[in-house]
Design goal:
Layout lengths: L5 H17 L9 E6 L5 H4 L2 E6 L11 E5 L12 H4 E6 L5 E6 L12 H15 L3 E7 L2 H6 L8 H8 L6 H4 L5 E3 L7 H13 L2 E4 L3 E6 L3 H23 L9 H10 L9
Parallel strand pairs: 7-8
Antiparallel strand pairs: 1-3, 1-6, 2-5, 3-4, 4-5, 6-9, 8-9
InterPro entries: Aldolase_class_II_sugar_metab, Aldolase_II/adducin_N, Aldolase_II/adducin_N_sf
Enzyme class: lyase
GO molecular function, one term: metal ion binding
Length: about 270
């Protein structure tokens, strides 16, 4: 099967950014996207400007690989219209500590996203463990999930999953690993970076308490966005039920198990 071209990867990032904005999960310049590839033919032609940068953390598993990363302050809704203005290409050097940053003459950002450390750490961790040819990460700020994380009763992984996986039969299939919940940590901090890496080892989406989410996918940016959308929809139903006085029952555990059995899904959230 033919590999996607650089234009197709950029278009996928644009589609993912547009969908994040359509579900109100990225106000103004909030949210960021990155992908990591074994290599990317044609990258120097699309991004002809070059500079050497220090990586925010050692990433030895990514040596020789190329990342496409959104720039700080770029609006995700604008990526699709002009992706090279909002995205930089990072080619990791053999030492795993430095990289060549490529950009376009139309570049509209001074530096890469402030969450680059979390993106880079997750890519390095996942590729070190599984030697993936492709990996995508998406940070978004879905309002209903973020709102629930402000309520003490929802501030544990068990409580959040019990709440949001009970509203749609598809949820246990799409989010079989559930969503990991992290306490509030300063955005861009080393503390958040380390907790995020650990959370995404056992989940494909984590909730950064009182902040937003990061999701990952081995297939595409849009698949990582799908995980945000499913989790946010469950949180929206939970919010609706709260405002209605808790009158809806949601799916029972037995009903969720029956869906999982029908689709051959195993999950820690079936008990």
């Amino acid at each position: 099967m033919d590999r996607p071209t650089i234009d197709e990867y950029l278009a996928n990032m644009g589609a993912g950014g547009s969908r994040i904005c359509e579900i109100d999960a990225s106000e103004a310049g909030a949210g960021n996207i990155s992908i990591c590839l074994e290599d990317l033919p044609g990258v120097h032609k699309v991004f002809p400007l070059s500079e050497r940068i220090d990586l925010p953390l050692p990433a030895p598993a990514l040596a020789g690989r190329t990342l496409l990363v959104t720039g700080s302050g770029r609006r995700l809704r604008q990526i699709a219209a002009d992706p090279v203005a909002a995205i930089g290409a990072v080619i990791v050097e053999d030492d795993g500590q430095h990289a060549e940053l490529l950009s376009s003459p139309r570049r509209q950002f001074a530096k890469l996203t402030s969450e680059f450390n979390s993106h880079l750490a997750v890519h390095n961790d996942q590729i070190s463990a599984r030697d993936l040819p492709f990996h995508a990460t998406v940070h978004a700020q879905p309002p209903h999930l973020t709102f629930l994380s402000h309520i003490p009763a929802y501030q544990s992984t068990k409580a959040m999953n019990d709440a949001i996986l009970r509203w749609e039969p598809e949820s246990i299939v799409a989010l079989s690993q559930g969503i990991g919940v992290l306490p509030f940590m300063v955005p861009g901090s080393d503390q958040l970076m380390a907790a995020n890496v650990e959370g995404l080892r056992t989940h494909e989406i984590v909730l950064w308490g009182k902040h937003g989410t990061m999701s990952r996918s081995d297939l595409s940016v849009t698949r990582a966005v799908d995980r945000v959308e499913y989790a946010e929809t469950g949180a929206m139903y939970e919010h609706m039920n709260l405002t209605a006085g808790g009158v809806a029952e949601g799916l029972s555990k037995a009903e969720i198990r029956s869906v999982a059995e029908a689709f051959g899904v195993t999950s820690p959230w079936l008990d």
